[in-house]
Structures are given as C-alpha cells and as structure tokens.
Amino acid sequence: xxxxxxxxxxxxxxxxxxFPGPTIRARAGDTLHLHLTNKLHTxxxxxxxxxxxxxxxxxxxxxxxxxxxxxxxGEAFVYRFKVDRAGTYFYHGHYGMQRSAGLYGSLxxxxxxxxKEKFEYDGELSILLSDWWHKGSREQEVxxxxxxxxxxxxxQTLLINGRGQFNCSLAAHFxxxxxxxxxxxxxxxxxxxxxxxxxxxxxRLRIASSTALASLNLAIxxxxxxxxxxxGNYVKPFTADNIDVYSGDSYSVLFRTDQSPSxxxxxxxxxxxxxxxxxxxxAILNYLPTSPSHLPTSPxxxxxxxxxxxxxxxxxxQILSLPGSPTPPxxxxxxxxxxxTQTYINGYTKWSINNISLTLPTTPYLGSIKYNITNAFDAxxxxxxxxxxxxxxxxxxxxxxxxxxxxxxxxxxxTVDVVLQNANALKDNVSEIxxxxxHGHDFWVVGYGEGEFKEGxxxxxxxxxxxxxxxxxxxxxxxxxxxxxxxxxGVWAFHCHIEPHLHLxxxxxxxxxxxxxxxxxxxxxxxxxxxxxxxxNGTR
Amino acid sequence: xxxxxxxxxxxxxxxxxxFPGPTIRARAGDTLHLHLTNKLHTxxxxxxxxxxxxxxxxxxxxxxxxxxxxxxxGEAFVYRFKVDRAGTYFYHGHYGMQRSAGLYGSLxxxxxxxxKEKFEYDGELSILLSDWWHKGSREQEVxxxxxxxxxxxxxQTLLINGRGQFNCSLAAHFxxxxxxxxxxxxxxxxxxxxxxxxxxxxxRLRIASSTALASLNLAIxxxxxxxxxxxGNYVKPFTADNIDVYSGDSYSVLFRTDQSPSxxxxxxxxxxxxxxxxxxxxAILNYLPTSPSHLPTSPxxxxxxxxxxxxxxxxxxQILSLPGSPTPPxxxxxxxxxxxTQTYINGYTKWSINNISLTLPTTPYLGSIKYNITNAFDAxxxxxxxxxxxxxxxxxxxxxxxxxxxxxxxxxxxTVDVVLQNANALKDNVSEIxxxxxHGHDFWVVGYGEGEFKEGxxxxxxxxxxxxxxxxxxxxxxxxxxxxxxxxxGVWAFHCHIEPHLHLxxxxxxxxxxxxxxxxxxxxxxxxxxxxxxxxNGTR
Lengths: 540, 540
Hints:
The structure is a homodimer of 540-residue chains. Chain A is mostly beta strands and 540 residues long.
C-alpha cells in the first residue's frame, strides 16, 4: 500500500493495513497461530520469526526455499509454533528483498504467567529500527543482479517504528545543515515516534533492528542505558551511553527517567560501519505531562564516528551472559571456518562463503532432504574451510567464485564451532561489517579476533560466560567464533543479515536430524520437486 | 532487467535477455513447445498466446487463475499447443499488470508448407505496438487498488517494437513543441525501429497492439495501406490512409514502396479515444539504399483527432470478412447482454459487468470445474443481462457494484450472442472505448449500434460477411454484438484488453464442455484447491 515512511510517499508491503506490521505479543510457553493470507498481486511471501527457535516446527521458520515454499497470491498459511522463551524478537519477510519493502514488525514474548524477569522496571517501551530507500525493492533486486552490479547505496532514511524524515529535520536548528526544519502536526505517517514516560521511573526499552543494510548506534540524550537482554537471553548488566545495534540484533535496556521532567529528550540512531549518507533517525522521549510537541532543547546525542571500530568492538566484547545462563560444551565435534569474500561469477558481483555463493533451490531443503529427493540441490556439501594461504588483508588475486546450493549436514546433537572469517572485499582497503544470523538456534559467541583465525586462537575462546545469541557481528579484517549444539531437527539458514548481501549469496545452510522431523504440512512443501512427489504419492 | 524503452531507463520483464521478448515464428499446423522458466525473484508468471485458440489444450492458454496456476519463481512450464491457422499474433503476460511491465512479444504463424496466402507480397515487416509508463507496474497496481483509486494516467511513451522517445523528438523540427530533437547514434535501446524496404515492391506489414491502455491510429507517410488480415483471419481488402489499432488487435496491411527512393518516410502511431498526453510513436520506413539516418523530410502523417469517433467507427465498419470465410450460424441459442459500467465497491473504483466486478479465484477455474470443486469460486453465475431500465447515457444513480467470481456456463456447441453494452462512466459525459478480447475462440462481429441495445437491433445483424476476430471494440455510448460457437472445451476469459480495466474487474469467464477436457497437466493446477486435491489423491 501507499505509505510515507519518510516525507516522500512510497509503496510498502503492509500487514492488516499497517506499516510496520502489527506487534505480536505473547507469553512464554504460548503456541501462536498466525494466519497469513497473501494479498499481493503476483508475489509469493513468507514471514520469518526472527529469534524463535521453532523447536519441533522447522517448517514454520518462514524462509523461502529452506523451510517452506513461498505462499502464493491468494493462498493462506498458518504459522503455528511455540514461543518457548521470553524475549524481544521481531518478524520479517525472508523472500527476495521483501524485508527492504517494509515487511516487518515486532514480536514480544513476556515471561510466563507467574514468572518474573531477572530485572525490574516500571514501564516498557519498544522500538523497531529499519532503513528505507526511495527506490522500490524490485528495482533494487534488478540493480543487484545486473552486470556490472549496481549497488543499492546507503538508505535515504532511517526509521524508528517505521517513521523517519528525509526532506526535513527535527533537529535542523542544532546543525548547520541546509535541511529545513520539519513542520509537523504529529499526525503525519512520518511524524517521529513518541516514547511517553513518567518522571522518576525505570523503563525497559526493547530494541530490535530489521535494517536491510545499516548498522546503527542508538543513544538517548541525557540518559544512560543498562543493557540486560540480547536476542532473548539475559546478559550481565552493564551501563552504556550508546549501544550498537546490527541488523538482526535485539536488546532490552533499562533507563531511569531522572532528568528534568519539563523537557523532552532525543532518542537517536546513527549509521555505524559505513560512511554515513543518511541522517540520524530521531524519536522523542516525552516526559509527561510535557507536550510531545516540545522538541528537545539540546542537540541530539553524539555517537561514535562511523569508523570508530574500537568503540564498536569494546561494546560487543562487553556483552556477556548473566551468571546462571547456559554455557557451551567444552569441545566442539566439528569446526567450520567460513571465509567471507566478495567475488565475481561471470562478471556478476557476489558474496561467497569458502568461494561458494549461495543460490537457493526451488524446492525447500526441508522437504527435499526429509524425502530424499536427490536432484533438488547440489549433492556436494560446501567445504569446511577455504583453501589455506588466503590473505584476508588483501583483495583476492583471483576473485572468481561459483554458485552453489549444497548444505552442511551437521551430526545431530553435535557441537559445532563456526569461525566467521572476514576479509578484504574486492576493492583495496575495504572490509565491511557483517552481522550473521543463525536460524533455529542460539549460539555462544566464544571469541573475536583480528586478521586470520589460527588454530591456536581456539584456546582463548570464552567458554565461561559467552553471550548466547542468534546474531553475531564480524568486524573488518577480523573473525568471530560461535559455538552451538545441532540439536534442533530441521534445515536452517545461517547468513549475513544484510539483505542485499544475502541476495548476493552470503549465507550457508545447515541440516541436522532431518530424519527426525515429523509432521511437515503438505502446504509447506507443495512446490518444486516435493510438490511433484506429493501429487504423485497422495497424502503422507 | 534494466532497459530504456524510451530515453529514460526503467525495469522491464524480459525474455531471454530481450525486450520485447523474442519473435516466435511457426507454420500453420506446427505444435509449439515453449519452455518457460521463471527467473523473476518473487513473482509468479504466465504467458498468454493471444489469438491462438488452444483447441484441445485449454491449459496452455496462459491465463492465471483461469487456465493455470501462475508459474512460481524457479519453476518451469512447457506451453505445448498447435498453431492451427496462419496469422499475425502476439503473446503477453496475463497475471497482475505484467503486460504493462513489458512482458510481450510477437508470434507469427506462416501458412503451412506448400500453402499460399490469399494475397501476394514481396517482403514482410512486423511491428508490435505498446505503451510505456515510467512508474513501475507494481506501483501502478497499488495505485489502482487504492481508495480513492489513483488512475495510472496516459502513458509517457508509445513504443514500436519496444522503442520510443520521451525527452526528445525525432520530428522536433516539424513542430512548435519545446521538446529537443533526438541526437541518436542508432545503437540506443530507444532509437527508432527501422523498417528496411526496397523500392517498387509490395510489402506485408504485420501489426499487433499489446498496449496496456492506448488505442492507436497508425499511418505511413505518403503510403496507403491495404488491409488484408485481422486477428488471423482474412478480410475483404480495403485501402486506408490510416488504421485504428486497439489493444488486442492484429492486422496485416499491404503497401507499395512507390515513393521516391531517395527519401525515408515515417511510420507513426498516435493515441485515439482518450485525450492524448503522449507524443506519437515514430518508426522509419527506410528505402534502401538510402541511409536510415536520413530522417524523413516531410512531417509525420496526420491522424484523425483523438475524439473523431465517426472516423473510427467508419474504419471498424469497413472490416468485413473475405468471401469464403466462415459465416455465423443464423440464430443464437443464448444471448448475453453485458453492461459495462464504472462502479464503486466500498469506495474502491471498479469496472463491472452487469454490476459484478470480476475477482479471480486462487484455484484456476479449469481445474476446479473439471474436478467439481465446489467452493473454489462463486457458485452463482452472473446475470445474463443487467436489470432493465438502466440509462446508458447518464451516470448511474447508484454506482455501487459487488465483487464476483462466478462463470457463465455455456452449453457445449451452442451459439452464443454477446452484446457488449457501453455506458456513461462515473463522471458526467464520459464514456470510453473498450476493446474486448475473447480467449479460445474467434467471434463474428455481427453488429454495432448507438445507445442502448434493443431486441429489435438483432434483426439488423450482419450474418453475411461479418469479420471473424478475437477482439472487438465498443465505442462510447454504443454497443457491439458478437456471435460465437462454444465449441472449444475449456474455460475462457472474455475481457476488456485494457490491462488496468481488467485489473479493476472488467471481464467475464466462460466455461464450456469442461467435462470433455482430457489431459490437464498436474503442474497447470498444482495450486489452491486443485493442488490440495492432487496431493490428497495422487496422480490422476
């Protein structure tokens, strides 16, 4: 539908007439029944429930070509799954570039009836961060798939709960910029989001990022934040002036409304890790009974410079699990080293992992693996590591890679280490941030390092209090190691959460215990070769 | 892919890297095997073979929701059908607004080996006409489906074989317009199409129109045309300075290259029936050995004024079948009177037929009717005529209509008359041209009239030499009567060929002899309720 995420009208994929989609709220232990009817004219659709592990329901993970067939126009699909753990989650499209088109919303799971969180607060607020382009996602797909590739560029606008400003600025009078001050009634679709608070209370602010590209830094003017949750898991609380939020991350922070109640304050999100061409997103922390139309009297909070990686690394390293949290098995059964490189295939720019650029098959893996359909995807698994001798600090001497749809088959219940190895991109002196997101599991982030990962580095892994998460970032020219237990029967994507990077092949697929999966609904796999099989054989 | 149909780059749906799609050429009696693989990222696709009757292969008609399920991304479908009759045809998308997005191409069927056409010529040329908007078709769909509706407006550019000019004009020096002359090397994607001819020869020019909206008038400067074929059928030859070509029409004309061979000449197409905001499309008739870069020295040919309906009607009335052509049965078994009105449904603007705005079901009719699936579409057939007393000359006192997916079930082998009754649209003093196209059949155009059709008008029907066609136009405030024999088992769309009008509900569905259909491929109906049936029952 038409919508104005910023002051320029565009078209969004909306849910029930809303952008972002409605917030889904449940209690831990609930089983959700989410009825999706696809009302798009010609496009299929799926929705991924980001951070929900889908234990026992791998067909409800909402990943086209992996867990299910896209739901065709006019068709319906019921996502039925248990939210087993309280936390801050979100949902989003996982087909083509539909997340960029605005298909996302918040999913919040409260503690079960009679349970208590491990921290206290008086009130709760929630924001979903995203980024927005004026060019439609279909054109973006064509741009990315062109030879030479046309990069989508930086977003025009950052959004907080779907709201941002492009041609005007709320904070124009604090800057020398030529952008005009916004003249807003407050009823505009792009009017800033207002977080209403009472003075002298402790608030829990839930934060999630569904950005297609932007890594963000979030700050609240004049207020410190205490980080207590990351990706649905408790963390050892620590205080920060500002926090980094990568695409795929979620956090809860506590803050105290201890400032003068006769003013309002900024909540701002700025771009990290890429030279920003996008102004900060601004929301208003509104101290009641002050009118929300009173703009803050001080300038928006300052964030670290976009390329202040030491500050980002310090923030990431500070995130540790709360004592009493699950700890990782002491030794892995298998270690994958996934080299992330920007490559070419026949002149098309791609992202590749161990020199393979992921191309998703037509038949969802979950069905083709469960039913032993052999020609649905590449039979050969991708390599466990890149050939030795690759210099991660320099552009590749031969940047050509190949397409692949093979999967890593993980032994059920085995412990797997994955070292995500960053490298120089195609251009000299460029290495980017990539937030990697794992479906169906949390992993422990056991280590970060600079340059090339060496076997000896594993000795330094943090096995005592590593954070338990579903998204972990790799920093430029560095590596990040995660450990998880392959205990969830299903087929699971593990990929860079930057949507255009995934579109260009930056992901891998894990399969584990698929033979144990029972009850895949026909409608989840009624396409491709599994569809043919079902038609041949009748009901299973 | 990126393409510049005019001098502004856009995105088109292309086939094998070509826009328009490749010309398909066959001989009468051939069976074509057309392998379609859908390489779009998230959209389904179908292709309709416009003018091919699909006798015995109704599942190959390429109409989403009617003859087949849309072919999903990554999937393939083979269109296998016989081209039983020589003629000038074309093909195009028939799902959402994919025709507007550029999914079309020419389909030419030559006479069978050893056969001869009923007219002679030395050489052949072919043009496919279309119209082009700078706004993408997805945005157009959203615009049309909004409340209030946002009309797509007139096209930015008219295209001849996919080529037009927007910011510049080939004929700038002949007009007072402020548009700059084009500076072209000839290699541009939007350089004009060149029709190369030798002097003193007779050429057959094949013409088809795949426009989304525009009715066109075509002329060749300094050359008269002799019309010999319409929609794959011979017509009584007649000579014209210019010809009207409505969306869905195809013609062959003969012309003699009897002009000075030291000049080139214009072929131009201008808008009919809507106040034009689009400059004429121009192609170059290039007399060899003159260089094609020598622009014609005289101004483009003049066309009738856009609202010169008497001239359009005179042209349509002139089209009669060649003696020896099939003639219609003398009396119909059933007469449908289809009142075309512009209406509202809950504030959404629609087009309706007998007060019902067609909404296509998720399950293709061909499958649901063949397999007696009762809840796939409205069980009730739409009415055979509108309630009496409707004043076609005035806006409706109550312009509300309802959605409907019912079909007209035609007795197999019966003769059916359809009177297409035009009316005033929502606004005072507006009544538009609508070219109606019938799938699966040709019809005889037995009469045209002004105002409201009266029973007595049938006495004046031309049953002697009515043209046999698949597309017929209704003029403002008038009616057009067609007769056909329901002798082709299948389910067939009959609709206004203006794509946004069809999108807004301007069509009906005919079903005949579906119980006789044998051999529907599973992959044509592997969606919706027929998909569920196939999975339940296994192969049929």
